[in-house]
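Quick start: read one record
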Amino acid sequence: MSDVIQEPVTVALAILTREGKFLLQLRDNIPGIPYPGYWGLFGGHLESEETPEAALERELWEEINYVPTKVQKFCYSAASDVIRHVYSAPLTVPIDKLVLQEGWDLDLLYPEDIRQGNSYSSKAGEIRPIGKPHQKILLDFMAKNKC
């Protein structure tokens, strides 16, 4: 029997801000996906031969029909299981102009929501947690630290 070495997953994530708040997605509450029913950043996996910037644009279009006009690299982090390319950009349209195509809910969360680690979802009808890795990224962003 041979040991299979699992390559880390590479993702591109977006910190989208509007009026001092952060746009987050409430992930579907489906067992088997990472962080089911948790708030997290929009974005996703890079496809073969895709740059992080291209993946970010594709994922944002697929998830909310939005592509920022300008993104700025915030940080890069690598762990044994995931490589994260994180970008920031302003959300230049009102939230009601977004079309949620992936996930359970979306909302603009206040910095205090990020600090406390949870926020109410009107679609879920309850307070839901923020995924720890995404909370850390946002806390670092608010503190102007790199992840």
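DSSP finds three helices and nine strands in the chain.
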